[in-house]
Amino acid sequence: MTMDKDSDDWIAKSPATDALIIDGGADLNNTLDPTLEFPTYTRYAVVASCFVIQGLSCGLVHSWGVQQEYLAANVYVGETSKIKTLSYIGTLMYFSLYLWGMLAGWLAEVWSYRKLCFVGIVIMAIGQLLASFCKEPWQLCLTEGVVFGLGIGLVFSPTSTAPARWFTKRRGLATGVAVAGVGVGGLVIAPLTEFLVRETSVEWSLRISAIYIIVLGSIACYFVRVPFQDKTRTLRSFDWHAFGDWRFAIHAWMVFFVTAAYIVPYAFLPEFWVDNGISSQTASVLIAVANVASSVGRVATGFAADYIGVLNSLVLCLAIASISCFVLWPFATGIGVGVVMGLCYGFTAGGYWSLAPLAAGKLFGVDKLASNAGIFYTVSAVGAWLGGPAAGAILSGPGHGTNFIGMSAYVGALWLAALVLAIVNRSLFSKRFFAKI
Q1: pLDDT digit string, tens, across residues 112-125
Q2: Contact predicate 286/411, CB 8 Å
Q3: Contact present, 437 and 430 (Cβ < 8 Å)
Q4: I need a surface site. Which of 8, 97, 159, 309 has the fewest CB within 10 A?
């Protein structure tokens, strides 16, 4: 086998490899081990670079709340309509993160993982820079929500799926480490943003973020690649056959239910705790515990998937997340149970994001993992858009802002629906109860 090392994706020239790549639906474990063809450090560089890009993109999404709070409290004081417009920006970011998944996954496979990530990084930096000159909230919606949102949408799918292409025995752990960048990025960038806003201004915090995005992101992009890529595919060769597979539809619905449920506890648990007499400072610590647990869960569940199987780990994660909402949330009125709720929910809900791309590869083949996972991320956008407002409507219904029991039951039911669908696909893959799947 000869390798074109000048190509940004190091394309394999072996006919046998080409056949393997073009033939979809192969099991992950039957894919050629890239460690036999590439230096060991290459795959670790891929994981590290994906970790950095995930941290930059999602970390900035998580830190927007700091800038939003400052603008609402100091710039647009008393201007209700403008403050309401500001609240849409975070939703737009979250929505865009998934909306462009289908396009990004497709472009990564037919064009280049590395080049696509670089384009996304540049668009992210431009969005932040343009936002620094905005004077009105609607302008921030366009720059932060749309432009920056497009950038993070282009990098999220490739960096979520690239590590799985480099590993066979530790594929779950590699993916878990890469997507753990989301939580670590939030833990680092949110305090940094708060410091920059306090010491300089929102405008300069955005400009400085544009600088470190382009510097750190460009360096990381260089190492984002996959070992083997089918260069015979073109922009016109999108594979629509997946939509005819009902297992694909089952997995897509599972993704929809998870994404509709995922963000609700993070958004409403602080309000629930304060409503039950816990101070706002303590509530912020409890939600921070959930975020830390989320980062740990992304790595730990990926590690577990290597030993007990991806689909088995996914079923277990969904089950515990559902139980957390049904059983723990209604009784998390004190600090003790609140910590347990944060740990259990954060660990398993975060762990899902490690397992989601791995499960797609297990069910539908690793050779088209980016495009398939991208489709599921686009489905996630719909769930992200609908899940929060529906939860808010339940909360503001009977009880007038205090119907947290109804909200927890709603979120638990979404996780339960996802669990049932995951079990269906797991049983279709293998009916052996103790099989490592």
Answers
A1: 899 999 999 999 99
A2: no
A3: yes
A4: 8
CB 129 within 8 Å of CB 149: no
Q: Which of 8, 1, 64, 28 is nearest to 436 (CA)?
A: 28
Helices (H), 236-275: 246-275
CA 338 to the chain's CA centroid: 24
pLDDT band per the 50, 70, 90 thresholds, residue 169:
confident
Half-sphere exposure of 88 (CA within 13 A, CB side): 14
**Distance (Å, rounded) from C-alpha 350 to C-alpha 374?**
18
- Tens digits of residue pLDDT in 146-162: 999 999 999 998 999 89
| DSSP bridge pairs for 3 | 12
Cβ–Cβ < 8 Å for 367, 314:
no
Q: Which two tokens stand for residue 52?
A: 């950095």
Dump pLDDT digits (tens) for 212-246. Answer: 999 999 999 999 988 876 666 655 555 666 667 78
Domains of the chain: 33-222 (1.20.1250.20), 241-429 (1.20.1250.20)
Nearest-angstrom CA–CA distance, 433 and 436: 9
b/e sequence 193-231, b meaning 16+ C-beta within 10 Å: bbebbeeebbeebbbbbbeebbebbeebbebbbbbbbbb
Cβ atoms of residues 351 and 12 within 8 Å:
no
- Which helix (H) or strand (E) is 393 found in, with range? helix 369-395
Q: Extract the tokens encoding 406.
A: 């109804």
Residue at 183: amino acid letter: G
Task: Yes or no: say if 132 and 203 are a contact pair by the CB < 8 Å rule.
Answer: yes
Which of 272, 255, 244 has the alpha carbon at shortest distance from 377?
A: 255
How many CA atoms lie less than 13 Å away from 238 in the CB half-sphere? 15
Residues facing 12 on adjacent strands: 3
What are the DSSP calls for 9-41, one per residue?
T--B--HHHHHHHHS----GGGS--GGGTS-HH
**Phi and psi, residue 368, nearest 5°:** -120, 35
Q: How far apart are CA 302 and CA 175, in angstroms?
A: 7
User: Would you say the C-alpha torsion 391, 353, 361, 436 has a positive or negative sign?
Assistant: negative
The 3-state DSSP class for residue 3 equals strand
Q: How far apart are CA 242 and CA 219, in angstroms?
A: 35
pTM: 0.78
Instruction: Return the sign of the alpha-carbon dihedral for residues 206, 212, 214, 220.
Output: negative
Tens digit of pLDDT for each residue in 127-150? Answer: 999 999 999 999 999 999 999 999
Mean pLDDT estimate for the chain: 83
